[in-house]
Amino acid sequence: MNGVIMPKNKISLFSGVMLALSSLIGSGWLFGSGTAARVAGPAAIISWVIGAAIMILIAFNYVELGTMFPESGGMSRFAQYSHGPLLGFLAAWANWVSLITLIPIEAVACVQYMAGWPWKWANWTANFMHDGAITTEGLLVVYVFMLVFTLINFWSVKVLTRFTSLVGVFKLVIPTLTIVTLIVVGFHPGNFGHSTATFMPNGTRGIFEAVTVSGIILSYDAFQTVINMAGEMVNPQKNIFRGVWISLTITAVIYIALQVAFIGAVDPTTLAKVGWQGINFSSPFADLAILLGLTWLSILLYMDAFVSPFGTGVTFVATSARTLAAMTRNGNIPAWLGRLNRRYMIPRFAMVADLVLAMVLVFFFRDWSKLATVVSVSTFVAYATGPVTAVSLRKMRPNFTRPFNSKALSWVAPLSFVLTSMVIYWAMWPTTVEVIFVVVLGLPIYAYYQVKYDHVPLRTQLKGSLWMLFYLVALSVLSYVGSKGFGGTGLIEYPYDFVVITILSLIVYRWAIASRIDGPDLKEAAKVNEDVVIDEQ
């Protein structure tokens, strides 16, 4: 039934928004503002605005696709509909890797925050960390958290939505309370600078750098939760659109306001001595609260430092499992991974597989920061297919039912493709090469199933995906020879590196549209789309 489940298990718009907010407001808000301020100074406010704009433009493409094909784990299917199985696999694999890795990342975040609890009765938690890495003792606690994340998802969508709705409300209340309290109690307008130089101490480059390295992009990344749960939403043709925009708008307002509150709350005397680069709090908002004598707020912040990543981890178990289950329908991984539990219509096998692989990942990579950048960029490798697919499907199947059909796609699609390239570049060398390795890691599995079943001729598959392979290699080369501010050798100086990336992106974008494949996968797309109706009310 194309991922459709029984009405009693359907997710309402409110629950969908809370589910998205539970993903969007994770561990990033507690550290993002402090890190961004060190990199960009007061201009970090602009970084958050840029990050929100980029994600809204990227989401624009996926809202059209999600409402056309309201199926669970849909983001693992869209690229295959327009460009065949190889590109579909590359996009789905990159997206799934980023999602599955977010499960241990959030568990590690919980444990790292616990290790820093300031209370005497919690001294035992200090043993969870040593020299910035999770210890063996802490790893066991990480595994317990990951198991709990999975169990909350294991029986019913109702249990998941009730839990995330409760956590989602908590996540909204604490940041809002923090913003209001810091602005009222300790706000210094002079911290925002008196000139362009003091507002942007590291120039415009610092603004762009902060977008990626400060966790800003990662903080906005989870809008896809609504897309991937589309098959389980009430009235998905309307609620996908509403859920994505409402959750992203609320999140953007909160993050931007948090950055304003953080900048204004820093002690001007300290700032005059060390500058923004010297403002380095281990727990930014909690430390500020303590310095301002707000003990009650610091306690709430330490609590939220546990609740926020916990809620995000639970949500990403749901999202990653549905993404893996959707990949089985492409015929490139074992079909049993996508089997649904008959009673709850939940992909339990996919959840167990995700849990085991996530445990392996965190065993080898115990540092949250090392995983975060690679994860966020691998997601953007997948996002590069969104605008290409949306435009290609308009050209191939203009008669498909499109509940969200905007003329703006003609300029939003190429612009969002260029911005996707920029985000990957801003991650700095050698992260781009690491992302290619993560993507290529899945190709042997894909090759095995292609040889076994001989789905589509190799020549056809390469036609639809060669542009992506070239694109990733070209971005890696540009990252290496690009400006030193972004980790390159400086052969191409800033801002000319941005010009080169823009030109490359527009050329590859046109190539990608021309590489569309009108093949058997479009017949599957038509079956999903035929049940979609446009409600005129």
From TrEMBL:
Keywords assigned: Membrane, Transmembrane, Transmembrane helix
Keyword Cell wall biogenesis/degradation annotated: no
GO CC field: membrane
Membrane topology: Multi-pass membrane protein
Highest taxon of source: Bacteria
Transmembrane segments: 12-31, 43-65, 86-114, 134-154, 166-187, 207-223, 244-265, 285-303, 346-365, 371-391, 411-429, 435-453, 465-482, 494-513
Cellular localization per UniProt: Membrane
InterPro entries per the UniProt record, alphabetical: AA/rel_permease1, AA_Transporter_AGT
Keyword Nucleotidyltransferase belongs to the record: no
Pfam families from the UniProt entry: AA_permease_2
Principal location listed in the UniProt entry: membrane
Name listed for the protein in its UniProt record: Amino acid transporter
